[in-house]
Amino acid sequence: MPEGDTVYATAHKLTEALAGVTLVRGELRHPRLSTVDLKGRVLDRAVSVGKHLFLRFDGKLSLHCHLGMDGSWRVYPGRAPVTHQTRAVLGIPGKTAVGNLLLEMALLSTSDEHRLTDHLGPDLLSPDWSDEHQAEAVRRLTADPARELGQVLLDQTVMAGVGNVYKVELCFLLGVSPWSPVSDVDPEKAVRWARKLLLRNALNPIRNTTGDPRRGRSLWVYGRRRQGCLRCGGPVVYTPGDRVTYHCPRCQSGPGPS
């Protein structure tokens, strides 16, 4: 799944490209939406909520989509390539946005968006983030102290926006392995770091969790199976699975994979 910063950046890109201009093309290539034509509508803005994307049009109509593993939106000057993977085509004079391999799509009233997101935890990239959001995220994070930290960080009902890269890097920054229980970390710090990293990368084309802008030094352990830990230089352990995991046994305490 994409990280929350990817969806946030996608919303920003679509808003900048299309907002405020009447669509001259508005095709939705989805079985349930194939008869819908959005031509003539105006995009007010696109917004992200965790990993969910909403395109809000005039008339209080929203297009909801989820990028899934492989979905993406790209904006092209003029006409754009459309393939069998294309699920949406939105065009204005001089620009066309194409959504490919979108996992979920639905049209709904903008006022009903919450029905698709009410189950989520606090959105780490919410512009309205407050102390109450922080406290709620901490409450959800610590609801089961014995649960594996890596699993909890990926649970969107705890806090929305963390994907596998951030899971790995957050565990490194917290100094514990992803299989450590939640009780082994400071939950306040975990939530603050999660939000800080997502905010830092919200509009950054190259994801960076280290603060070092030099090439090859943007991540502490994720993807560094061959290079080694960026901090200590020691071996990084790679654990395959549905969500691959990397960790440094020298810098991170706690159990390994079962």
Can you walk through the features of this model?
The chain has 5 helices and 10 strands, in the order αββββββββααααββ. It is α+β, with helices and mostly antiparallel strands and 258 residues long. Strands 1-6-7-5 form a 4-stranded antiparallel β-sheet, with helices on one face. A 4-stranded antiparallel β-sheet has the order 2-3-4-8, with helices on one face. Strands 9-10 form a two-stranded antiparallel sheet. A hairpin with a 2-residue loop joins strand 2 and strand 3.
Feature tags:
4-stranded antiparallel beta sheet, alpha+beta, N-terminal domain of MutM-like DNA repair proteins, 258 residues, 2 domains
What order do the helices and strands come in, and which of them pair?
Layout lengths: L3 H15 L6 E4 L14 E7 L2 E6 L3 E6 L5 E6 L8 E7 L2 E6 L3 E6 L21 H11 L7 H6 L9 H11 L12 H15 L35 E3 L5 E3 L11
Provide the structure class: alpha+beta
The percent of residues in helical segments reads 10-25%
**What's the domain count?**
2
Report the top-level CATH class of the largest domain.
Answer: Mainly Alpha
- SSE order: HEEEEEEEEHHHHEE
Q: Give the overall average pLDDT.
A: 96
* Cα-atom radius of gyration: 20 Å
Number of helical runs? 5
| CATH architecture assignment of the largest domain | Orthogonal Bundle
